[in-house]
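so my prof wants the structure for this chain in the tokens format not the other one, which i didnt know existed until like an hour ago. anyway here's the sequence
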Amino acid sequence: MSKEENLTVGNAWGIFNSKLSEYYSANEIHSLGNIIFEHFFNLDPAQRILQRNHLIAQGFGAKLEEIIEQLKLHIPVQYITGVAHFCNLQFEVDKRVLIPRPETEELVAWVYSTICTNCFDSSQLQILDVCTGSGCIAISLAKQLKDAKIKGCDISEAALDLAMENAKKNQTEVEFFHFDALNDSLLLQNLDAIVCNPPYVTNNEKMQMQTNVLNFEPHLALFVPDNDPLLFYRAVARLAYLSLKSGGWLFFEINENFSNETSLCIINEGFKDVQLKRDFNQKPRFIAAQKIL
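here's what i got, hopefully its the right format
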């Protein structure tokens, strides 16, 4: 990279684009650049353009070169910045947890609207987020339902550590605890809702995944065996039926390729009123079901 004393913001932007042109599309580079320049260099898109003839700050060039090399390896930009945005909140993320997806925001919205539609008393409300990861679902719900008692659980102690940091950062009270959804017994009772975004990608689907996901995000939170892709749905639905109060709700994010099978799996565990919802890409992505005795 050019000597920093002669490098302008505009030059740096040009170098960023040219060095990544073999790795990403122009639109992807533009989006990545906007994130990087604002997060690390406090230059939002408007400032970057207005200050394009300004000389860069000391250390700017070296840091940008380091980031470019990381992006060439397809390290997710959220892992580079350490930040992901979800439901208008900011979450710390690293290799311990999956990066929250925009689709999952729709799941949070569905849980919230169902609760509001059914006139739950939020001061008495108890919700559990299974496979919580970064805590994004539990924390987002806690932010919207301030009086509710919300818990989150995960098999990964490392993920739970980060989830607790995120709860503190977002000024929410969420109780997190270690839990193996496939092997442990759930001791909670009379829950109003359980929400779960479990591992659901089969090993056969690995070849369809992007490099930045496959090579860097935790496989423990992603993959299930080809011969039993619904094992988490079956286990969590069984636990949920025992732990939910009558009239309580179970919510899942699902694999689009197994929507009918997942619905049947949940029905077989005793749930009624099973509803399938599509995401903004019109893919079957979410299921809600009610425990009715």
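also thought this was worth mentioning. The longest helix spans residues 26-41.
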